[in-house]
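Example 3.2
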Amino acid sequence: MNIGIDIVENKRLKNKKKEFIDYVLTKKEQDEFNKKGYLYLCGRFTAKEAIMKALPNTKEYNFLDFEILTKDDGSPYIVKNDNIKISISHEKNYTVAMVIILSI
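Structure, written as tokens:
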């Protein structure tokens, strides 16, 4: 089992350009981002950073290798990967994410 955590100051991501959004978010994530706004980007960026920190060989992956969508109850999940559990939380100026990888 591996654990990763990351935190971001939200204002860092408030006015990111399309190139950055394309680098971080998949097409489906961008569709949700367009509906929910920049805090969505903060959550997904932070969560993907936490995933990278939990992986043993980060250089084999990029942000688009992991798609994080939202269940009907509002909780995030990794598409096509039941081995990664994720939690994202927003508090005023910060977003934090924690990831547990059950097996690699």
